[in-house]
Design a protein that fits this description.
This is DUF502 domain-containing protein. The chain is an alpha+beta fold and 214 residues long. The protein contains five helices and five strands, in the order ααααβββββα. Helix 1 packs across helix 2. The protein is flat, with a radius of gyration of 26 Å. 8% of the residues are buried.
Length: 214
């Protein structure tokens, strides 16, 4: 083999090894950077610059202390909210924010988003296939409202269709006949498939077969 061909072969191998390494390290790197950003953001909620150095509060300047304190605060609030009396106080404060002009639009929007993902009123737990643009074209989506007759659309349902590689999406009002529930696909798997542009595999949960009565 000529030196020129050997150089080409070596360059091709190095390029292949580079992309193989990139496929391994890129997801790890992006995940690590995301976690680090979340950690730093939460940790910096407490303004360390204004804390005096000559008091016990100086320990709050240490990296990670603010992060732990914020987590403890969230846990404590969650624990207190389970108390009947304290939950009534939170409910009163919640009602006040929902009635305050301008603030109510921000508060209710953020609250509804969090409720949709982690609250008791989860909205993205009903994955479906929906026909939006054509008879033979199906989109992955999630039913957010089973009935939208209050909008003057009888027999329609609201379906949220997430965008690939983004945290955005669109809501479509479609006839119930154009929606196919995915009863054997977990909501998390459906969301991952839609957001990844369909490149990830879906772990389908098979329904247990019913035993025939003897």
């Amino acid at each position: 083999m000529s030196p020129k061909n050997r150089i080409k072969l070596l360059a091709a191998k190095l390029l292949r090894y580079f992309f193989q390494g990139l496929l391994i390290l890129a997801p790890m790197g992006v995940t690590a950077l995301t976690l680090y950003w979340v950690f730093v953001t939460i940790d910096n909620i407490i303004p360390k610059e204004i804390l005096p150095l000559e008091t016990p509060l100086r320990y709050l300047r240490y990296k990670g202390v603010g992060f732990v304190l914020v987590l403890l605060l969230v846990i404590v609030v969650g624990y207190l909210s389970s108390s009947f009396i304290v939950s009534r106080i939170f409910a009163l404060f919640d009602h006040l924010l929902e009635r305050t002009p301008f603030i109510k639009y921000i508060y209710t929007s953020v609250k509804d988003v969090f409720d949709a993902f982690v609250g008791e009123k989860k909205k993205f737990d009903h994955p479906v296939l929906v026909q939006v643009y054509g008879v033979d074209v199906w989109e992955m989506g999630f039913i957010t409202q089973q009935d939208v007759s209050n909008l003057g659309l009888e027999g329609y349902t609201a379906v949220y269709v997430p965008h690939a590689y983004a945290i955005t999406g669109k809501v479509f009002m479609v006839p119930v006949t154009k929606v196919k529930p995915l009863t054997n696909v977990p909501a998390g798997e459906a969301m991952k498939f839609a957001v990844s542009g369909g490149v990830t595999n879906i772990e389908v949960h098979e329904k247990p077969e019913k035993k025939e009565a003897r």
